[in-house]
Specification:
Helix content: 25-40%
Strand content: 15-25%
Number of helices: 13
Pfam families: CofD
Main location: cytoplasm
GO cellular component, one term: cytoplasm
Distance between the termini: 37 Å
Number of strands: 14
Order of helices and strands: EHEHHHHHEEEHEHEHHEEHEEHEEEH
Largest sheet: 7 strands, parallel
Number of domains: 1
Keywords: Cytoplasm
Function: Required for morphogenesis under gluconeogenic growth conditions.
CATH superfamily: CofD-like domains
CATH architecture: 3-Layer(aba) Sandwich
CATH topology: Rossmann fold
Length: about 325
Amino acid sequence: MKSRRPKIVVIGGGTGLPVILSNLRDQDVDITAVVTVADDGGSSGIIRHYVNVVPPGDIRNVMVALAEIPGIYKDLFQYRFETTDDFFAGHAIGNLIIAALSEMKGGIFDAVQELSQLMRVNGHIYPAANEPLELHAQFADGTTLRGEAEITAAHKLIKRVWVETSNHHAQPRAAQPVIDAIMDADQIVLGPGSLFTSILPNLMISSVGKAVRESPAEVVYICNIMTQKGETENFTDADHVRVLNEHLGANFIDTVLVNTGKVPDKYIDYQRWDEMSQPVKHDFQGLRSQGCRVISTDFLQLRDNGAFHNGQEVVHELLNLIGQPRFQKDSRG
């Protein structure tokens, strides 16, 4: 009997998600990307404000990572107009196409499925919800803010985050294929990406968080290499996992991938990569006390005076985990 391809669901947003997906694309796995819809910065934020559609930027980058089309088409889809173009300044062509299809199809979910066929996407791309969501945060000092960009810019210690619909009257809901993919998965991957503004907005949709907790799949968290200004300054790897567990009310992370590669002193260009703060410190005992298996190795890729994950090395470890025994769900607190 021919064995089926392993089903891997990757949940997140931002720039880290496409790195993993582009390296998974050519493997013999069934990929589903669940992408945040709470972005409100840059071109995505402007389009969201004027057209009232789900912000398309993260979806655009994921689509390019999984598309099997000639490079010139990808370059065109990613092309961003120069600032001298008054009307289109800063907008990526792909963002405009996704916004147009969203209007044509009456929602982002069906639009992305249509565009996925056109771009020969190897896998499935599911927006976490079919409508734009607002990210809210409560800080340690008791104050609150809404909006991803505003929350990060506040540079305050975040206590918790949650998402609401734009009209604040309905509970955010995920499309059923999102839940089905999570429940049918062999492996659920979180990150890499901004903890509070890329990963948690997906999990704070109650049906998504519930599905991740209850899925029989192994849940793997790819811990960030660098802490992030305005979000996770001074966080250890165990702190990242603690925040995830606290938001979902259970120790639901099975395995954590931790980078041990050293970022050279004075290598990071903090003006160019202004969101990077410092290398994440290790607390292996803190991770194990939360029921995690820890895989620590050199996942570091240094480029352009920044520190990033080596997608090939990360995917190698993810595929190794597919066939391995793991902690049972009912053993987690």
